[in-house]
Amino acid sequence: MTTIAVDLPRNYANAENTIISWLWTRDHKRIALLFLFSITLFFFIGGAAATLIRLSLASPGGLLQPAIYDRLFTMHGVTMVWFFLIPSIPTTFGNFILPMAIGAHDLAFPRINLLSWYVFNLSGLVLLYAVIMGGVDTGWTFYTPYSTLYSNGYVFAAALAIFINGFSSIMTSLNFVVTTHRLRAPGMTWWRLPLFVWAIYSVSIVMLTATPVLAMDTLLICVERFIGVGIFDPRLGGDPLLWQHMFWFYSHPAVYIMILPAMGVVSEVIACYSRRPIFGYTGMTIAMMSIAVLGFFVWAHHMFVAGISIYSAVVFSLFTFFVAVPSAIKVFNWTVSLHKGSIIFDAPMIYALGFVLLFTIGGLTGLMLATLAIDVDLHATYFVIAHFHYIMVGGTISGFFAALHYWWPKITGRLYPETWARFAAALTFVGFNLTFFPQFILGYLGMPRRSYTYPPQWQSWNLLSSAGASILAVAYALPLFYLGWSLFYGRRAGPNPWGATGLEWTTPSPPPTHNWERTPVVKLGPYSYDPVDGSYTTQDGTKNAF
Amino acid sequence: MEQYHWIPFWPRTAAISGVVVNNLYIAELGLCGLIMAMVVGMMATFCFRYRQGSTASRAGRIEKTWHWEIGWTAATLIAFLVLFVWGASIYIWLFKAPPGDIEIYVTAKQWMWKFEHPGGQREIDTLHVPIDKTIRLVMASEDVIHSFFVPAFRIKHDVVPGTYETIWFKADKLGTYAIECAQYCGVQHATMKGDVVVMTAADYAAWLTAHGAERSLAQQGAALFRQYGCSGCHEPRSTVHAPSLVGLYGSLVHLQDGTTVRADERYVHDKILMPNSQIPAGYPSNVMPSFAGEISEENILKIIAYIQSIGSPRESQ
Hints:
The structure holds 2 protein chains of 2 kinds. Chain A is 66% helix and 1% strand. By secondary structure, chain A is mostly helical. Chain A has one domain (4-544): Cytochrome C Oxidase, Chain A (Up-down Bundle), CATH 1.20.210.10. A 3-stranded antiparallel β-sheet of chain A has the order 1-2-3, with no helix packed on it. The longest helix of chain A is centred in the N-terminal third of the chain and has 36 residues, at 66-101. Chain A is globular. By secondary structure, chain B is of the alpha+beta class. Chain B has 3 domains: 11-45 and 67-96; 102-210, Cupredoxins -  blue copper proteins (Immunoglobulin-like), CATH 2.60.40.420; 217-316, Cytochrome Bc1 Complex, Chain D, domain 2 (Orthogonal Bundle). Chain B is 36% helix and 20% strand. Chain B has helices at residues 16-49, 66-95, 201-210, 217-227, 231-234, 265-273, 297-309, 313-316, and strands at 102-109, 112-116, 122-124, 126-130, 135-141, 146-150, 155-159, 165-169, 175-181, 193-199, 252-254, 260-262. In chain B, the strands form 3 sheets. In chain B, strands 3-2-1-5-8 form a 5-stranded mixed β-sheet, with helices on one face. Chain B has a 5-stranded mixed β-sheet with strand order 4-10-9-6-7. Chain B is elongated and about 100 Å long. Classes of the chains: A mainly alpha, B alpha+beta. Chains A and B meet through helix 4, helix 11, helix 12, helix 13 and helix 15 of A and helix 1, helix 2, strand 7 and strand 9 of B.
C-alpha cells in the first residue's frame, strides 16, 4: 500500500505521523490545516441550515414550523459569519501562506497560533451546545430587547460562543500583524509585499480593533438577560438602539474582515493567470487600507429607518458612498489587469473572475442601499439578503475556493483534476446567480427577510431561488470529492506548477517543516510576469521560462 | 393587493412618495446597469482577445497607471455624490413628518398592528385612510422592535419600544395595499401583516360614522387623565405647584438646564414615564412619580390626545 508518507520527500505533513504531533503542533502549516478541518465542518453545518431554509421557502406556507425556521436562519447566520466567513481565508491560507509569502519560517507566536485553534473549537462546542439544547431564534444580529427579554432560546450560550470566538480572531490577527512587521525576509520591503499579504495585514488590523467591541456587546447582552441590569431594554431604563450602534460598530467592519482577504486572493490569482503584473499595485494597497479605515465610519447605515437622527443618517450615507470608491477602484484595476495579458482559464481564475462579477453586482446594489431614500424602501427586505450574499458568498466564498485550488498543490504536493475543478467553478457561478438574483426582485417587491411564509404570488421567484440553492449545494460539495481523490491519486505538483512569482512557490511542495533551508533574499516586487515571452521572475530574482 | 407576476417596467405605487422614490430608483438602476455593462464588456473583450495563444499584440501595455486610477476615482466619486445628495434630500423630506391632516396612533405588538383614529375608532391590522390627505402616524411599540412598512408607498420606519416614531404618507390611488412588519419580532413575525385601505373622502367619512366610537380619543384620554390622578396636580385650579398643561402641546418648554424642547408627543410620553428628566425651569424635581410599568402605551397615546385637545400654542399665546 502506498501512502503519502512513502511517496513524497520529507515535508511538514509527513515529518511526524502521530495524532499528538498534529494536535500539539506549532507549525503554521499544520495549524492552517487544523483550521481548514474545523471551518469546513462549520461550513457544511451552516450550509445544511441554508438548504433547509430554501427547501422550506419553496412553498408559500413554509414547510417547516415557524419556531424551527427561526432557529435555522439564526444558526445559519451565526455559523456562517463567525465560524466560517470571518476565520475562513485568514486562519487557513493566511496561516499557511503568509509566513512563506514574506519569507518567514513560521508565525511570530506559534503557540498562540495553536491556542487560537483550541479557543476557536471551544467556542464552536459552546455554539453546538446552544443548538442542541434548543437553539436560538433571534437572528445573528441579536436585536434587543427581543434577545434580552422576549426570546426563549439559548441566547446566553450563543452569545458566550461568539464572545469566546472573538479571542481566537484577536490571537490570530495579532500574530499576523506582528509577523508582517517583524519577520519579513531581507529585501521584502512593504512595497514588495504581495497583495494577499497586504489584505491579510489590513484585515488583521480591523480584527484587532473591532473584535473587542464585539466582546463588550455579547457580555452586555448576557448581563441584561441574566442579571436584569437595564442596558438595552427601555422597561429597565435602557436604550434598544444602543445595541444596534454597538453591534454594527463591530459587525460592519466585520463585513470587510470577510471580504478583504478574498480581495487579496483574487489579486494573486488574476495576476498569475493573466501572466502580467496587477494593474495599479500601489492603488490596490491604498484602496485596501482605506477600506479598512473607512469601514469603521459607516456602521449606522444599518439603522437608517431605526429612528436615529436624520442628520446623522445623512453623514453615514455620505461615508458609505466614500467607502464604495476604493471598492470601485479595485474592480476597475482587476478588470484592466486582463488587458494585454495571456489569460489561462484554470479553475482558480474562473473563481476569481466570478468573484469580480459577483462582487461588482454586490457593490452596485450596495450603492442603492447607501442611497437614503432607496434604503428606506429596501431595508430589511430580501434585497438586502441578496446584496450581502453577493458580497459574502459570491465574493468571499468564491475567493476561498480560488485560494483552495490555487494553493492546493503547495499544500498537498498534488495537482487537482482541472476539468472537474473548472466544472465546479462554473457550476458555482450559475447556481449562485440562480439562487440570489431572484431575491433582489423579491426584495424589490417588498418581501421582508426572516419570514417563514409569504403571499403565493411570490412563489415562482422563491422556487427559482430554491432550485438555484440545490445547484449551489452540489457545486460546493464537489471539491470535497475531487480534492479528496487528488490527495491520493493527483499528479505530483512540483514546487511551482502555475509559474507564479510569490516566495511560497520557491520551496518544494509540500514545503519542509521550516519552509526554507535558508532564508530567501527578496530582490523584486511581486507579479513580475511577462505576457510577451511568457517568462516570469520569482521574488527572489530567479527568471524562469513558462 | 396588486398581483406582481413580472417586474413592471415602471413600478406602480400609490402615494406621492412613491413616484419621487421611483424616479431615483430608475436613475440609479440605470447607472448601475451602465457600470455593470462596462465591467462585463471590458472583461469579456479582454478575456477573448488576450486568451492564452491568441495572436493579439501584447506590446505597449499601460505601465503608468496613476492617471487612469485618478480618472476613475474622480468619476465614481462625482457620480456617487450626485446619488448621495438626491437620496438624502428625499430622505429628509420623507422623515421630517409635516403636521398631518389626520393623525393616527399606531401601537405595534407581537404580532398585530392596532390603529386609533382621532374620533376614537379603533381597528386591528387594517387601516382606513382617505385619499389625498396627509396622514401622520405616531407609532409606539408595546414589546420589541417592529417596523411599519408599506411597499406600495415606499415608506418604512422602525417602531422602537420606549419612544415614539412618526412617519407620514399621502395616498394618491384608491385601493388596498399591504402593510408588513420588516423587523424580525419573534416567531410569528411573518404573519404580522395588515392592509391600508385608501378610500374617497366621502367613503372615509361614512366609514368613520359606521364605526363611530362612543367617545373620541381625547375624551377617553380625559377620563384616563383623572383615573391615573394626573388631574390632581396638573389641573389649573390645583394647589400643587405643577405646570398647567393647557396650551402646552406644541409649545417650547424652557428647561432647568437652560435648553428648550418642543412639547411634542415624544416629550409628553417621556415625561409620563421618566418625570425626573427634562424638568421645566422653575419647577422642583422628584415630585411627580413615574408611571413606567403602570400605564400601557395605548393609554399614554390617549392621554396625549387629551393634552393635545386642551390647547395648542396659538390658543395660549
